[in-house]
Amino acid sequence: MLKYFFDNDLIYYSERDITDWRDAISESCQLLLDKKIIDQIYVDEIIRCVEEHGSYIVIVPEVAMPHSSEDSKGVFGTAISFTKMKQPVQFESDEGEKSAILFFTLAAKNADEHMENIQNLSELLMTDGLIESLVATNSLEEYQAVMKEYDL
């Protein structure tokens, strides 16, 4: 799946100093916006869902999976993008603070594709040491080295 991000030009290393989770979600959606896979309606929907339901998108320490429902009007295709923030972004939650530096943003046109994306991403993130290796990257070249190391 690391190759999927690379082959589809869905990797972005943010240079911005982002501290607000809303800005981080917007930043993580930028590639999908640029490719016209989603529009601003979907970005606003993700932010609204986090405001309503809490930091459910922080799925494991250091990793967020911004997404909304599979029937969103602002989704025109199916894709996942990878964004690494410059520094961890804090999310408030009932369990205290959570933070994420890696953002895997999902967009899907239907429920089956939505669930397949979540499953594929979950399997990827269970790879021993992968999250730490991705956190340590700061460029596309370093990402490629991780991609070759894990052959994913």
Number of helices: 7
Strand element count: 5
Can you give the mean pLDDT? Answer: 93
If you compute it from the alpha carbons, what radius of gyration comes out, rounded to the nearest whole angstrom?
14 Å
Shape designation: globular
Strand order in space, largest sheet: 1-4-5-3-2
Strand content: 15-25%
**Residue windows where pLDDT falls under 50 for at least 5 positions:** none
Indicate the percent of residues in helices.
40-55%
Structural class: alpha/beta
Describe the main β-sheet briefly.
5 strands, mixed
* SSE string, helices as H and strands as E: HEHHHEEEEHHH
First and last CA, distance: 5 Å
Which terms would index this structure?
Ascorbate-PTS_EIIA_comp; 152 residues; 7 helices; kinase; transferase
What secondary-structure arrangement, pairings included, does this model have?
Elements: H1 2-7, E1 11-13, H2 21-28, H3 30-34, H4 40-53, E2 58-60, E3 62-64, E4 79-93, E5 96-107, H5 111-125, H6 130-135, H7 140-150
Parallel strand pairs: 1-4, 3-5
Antiparallel strand pairs: 2-3, 4-5
Describe the model.
With 152 residues, this protein is of the alpha/beta class. Helix content is 43%, strand content 24%. It contains seven helices and five strands; from the N terminus they run H-E-H-H-H-E-E-E-E-H-H-H. It has helices at 2-7, 21-28, 30-34, 40-53, 111-125, 130-135, 140-150, and strands at residues 11-13, 58-60, 62-64, 79-93, 96-107. A five-stranded mixed sheet has the order 1-4-5-3-2. Strand 4 (79-93) and strand 5 (96-107) form a beta hairpin. The radius of gyration is 14 Å and the shape is globular. The model has no long low-confidence stretch (mean pLDDT 93).
